[in-house]
């Protein structure tokens, strides 16, 4: 009998998070799935996108403000550059206060 993992790709995890959110269990799920360091890194990642989308600071300034390496900022910048203007606009509406 060949055993396979229950989850084998990203879209299945997205569906799991959607299901948890529909049942108001997303906070519990995400907290249990991620270590404190991973949660902290995710907060930093969201802040990187916020600052890059605002465009008010250089990557070096963002790096210093958030206490992350310049390479981390560059990876976020490269991810944004790979996205369409519509995706960037959608992300802006989601994360900019």
From TrEMBL:
Keywords: Cytoplasm, DNA-binding, Repressor, Transcription, Transcription regulation. The keyword Transcription regulation applies. One of its GO terms (cellular component) is cytoplasm. The keyword Repressor applies. GO terms for biological process: negative regulation of DNA-templated transcription. Pfam families: Trp_repressor. One of its GO terms (molecular function) is DNA-binding transcription factor activity. Homodimer. This protein is an aporepressor. When complexed with L-tryptophan it binds the operator region of the trp operon and prevents the initiation of transcription. Belongs to the TrpR family. This is Trp operon repressor homolog. The gene is trpR.
């Amino acid at each position: 009998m060949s055993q396979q993992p229950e989850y084998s790709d990203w879209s299945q995890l997205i569906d799991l998070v959607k299901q948890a959110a529909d049942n108001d269990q997303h906070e519990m799920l995400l907290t249990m799935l991620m270590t404190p360091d991973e949660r902290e890194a995710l907060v930093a990642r969201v802040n990187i996108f916020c600052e890059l989308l605002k465009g008010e600071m250089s990557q070096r300034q963002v790096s210093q403000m958030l206490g992350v390496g310049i390479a981390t900022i560059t990876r976020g910048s490269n991810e944004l550059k790979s996205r369409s203007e519509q995706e960037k606009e959608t992300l802006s509406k989601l994360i900019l206060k």
